[in-house]
Amino acid sequence: MLGLLLSAAPGWLKGFVTLGCMLHAWWVVPRALWLVHPDSWRGLRLDADGWQLWSPRRGWQAVQLLPDSLALPALVVLRVRVPGQRFASGLCIPADSLPKEVHRQLRVRLKFSRHRWAVPG
Hints:
- By secondary structure, this protein is of the alpha+beta class.
- It has helices spanning about 1-5, 10-35, 100-110; strands at about 45, 50-55, 60, 65, 70, 75-80, 90-95.
- It has two domains: about 1-35; about 45-110, Roll (PH-domain like), CATH 2.30.29.
- The longest helix has 23 residues, at about 10-35.
C-alpha cells in the first residue's frame, strides 16, 4: 500500500485502495489475528469422523483438509474447506502456540494420516 501512496496514481485511486485495505483489515483482524470474533476457528481435533474445527458460533464442524497444507517444525499451515462452502480457509499454528509434544504430534498426524484428504461425510 505504501508503494501505491508514493506512486503517481490519481488521488481518487489512492483513496479508494486505502479504503479497501482498511475495510479488509477491519474484516480480517478480529477473525484471523485476534480470534475474538464468534466465527474465528479456535479448536482443532481429529477423531473417527475426521478433522474438525471449533468456533464459538458453530461449535465443532467437520472440515476437509486440503493437500496444500504444510507441516514444518516451526509452523503448521492448515488449508481447510468446510463442506458446502465455495472457498477454503487457512489457519496458521506456530510452534509456540502449543506444547512442544502436541505440536509434534499434529505434524506427524498431518504427514502420515491415511485419510487426511477425505471429504467429511
